[in-house]
Structure to design on (277 residues):
């Protein structure tokens, strides 16, 4: 069915408005990061700084250990993404392929668990980490992020497994391949787009997470980037706007870069999988 010209114009207008809505906070953050203090306090702010400066970036790195915090965030996010994918992939295969009551119960529990607020989880998680000696440590935070990301990763990968034709696995079984060999050699390559998308979700969620890191990490050199950003806000709630914008801009770059790099591979993998099937 062909779409009429007014309908196409309306669609493109709505898409443009949505893109502007998404890009506005990032562009304003970028503009603020390069403005000198005099322009930040102006009653008539402008999009483009009249006298752009890098002083906000120098001040941000001078006041707070941003590089160490970024490294802590990278370790926590990358570790959580890899471990969650490694655990969720075989679990998703079992849940998707075995239509038992237990598999349905697991799926239902996964959906229900996503409704739990952070406050209900932090106390039991804190006690568990205390018994394991992992309080105030990045490995302990990785464990928490894995627990938090695993339900959604399982639910997401199970949908990808159901999209893989069972006939491919049956053909592998006829050739003498077992369950593990079938999962590794046949199903997993076709799940590559789903695995990448799930890992990307887990990475970005852990990179941007604030509440668990704030509660579990007390030593400044072990804190993650979102927690360190709060140090630019004074005791009276007054933010050091320039350095805060500069640090926040740098904190958003990894998520954007990771998504931009992996997005093409996700699309390409989906097309490749479609041709194979």
């Amino acid at each position: 069915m062909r779409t009429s010209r007014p309908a196409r114009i309306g669609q493109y207008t709505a898409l443009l408005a949505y893109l502007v809505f998404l890009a506005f906070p990032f562009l304003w953050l970028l503009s603020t990061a390069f403005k000198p203090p005099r322009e930040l306090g102006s009653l008539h702010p402008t999009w483009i700084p009249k006298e752009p400066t890098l002083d906000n970036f120098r001040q941000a790195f001078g006041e707070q250990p941003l590089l160490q915090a970024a490294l802590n965030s990278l370790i926590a996010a990358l570790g959580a993404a890899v471990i969650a994918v490694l655990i969720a992939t075989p679990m998703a295969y079992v849940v998707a392929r075995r239509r038992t009551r237990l598999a349905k119960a697991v799926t239902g529990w996964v959906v229900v668990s996503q409704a739990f607020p952070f406050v209900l989880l932090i106390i039991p998680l804190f006690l568990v980490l205390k018994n394991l000696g992992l309080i105030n440590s990045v490995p302990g935070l990785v464990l928490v992020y894995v627990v938090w990301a695993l339900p959604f990763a399982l639910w997401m990968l199970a949908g990808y497994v159901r999209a893989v034709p069972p006939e491919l696995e049956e053909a592998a079984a006829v050739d003498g391949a077992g369950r593990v060999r079938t999962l590794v050699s046949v199903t997993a390559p076709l799940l590559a787009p789903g695995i990448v998308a799930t890992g990307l979700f887990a990475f970005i969620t852990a990179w941007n997470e604030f509440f668990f890191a704030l509660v579990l990490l007390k030593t400044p050199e072990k804190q993650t980037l979102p927690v360190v950003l709060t140090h630019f806000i004074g005791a009276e709630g007054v933010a050091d706007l320039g350095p805060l914008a500069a640090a926040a801009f740098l904190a958003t770059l990894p998520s954007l870069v990771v998504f931009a790099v992996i997005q093409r591979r996700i699309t390409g993998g989906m097309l490749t999988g479609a041709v194979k099937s």
Summary: Residues 241-276 form the longest helix (36 residues). Confidence is low (pLDDT under 50) at residues 268-277. The CA atoms of residues 66 and 225 lie 7 Å apart.
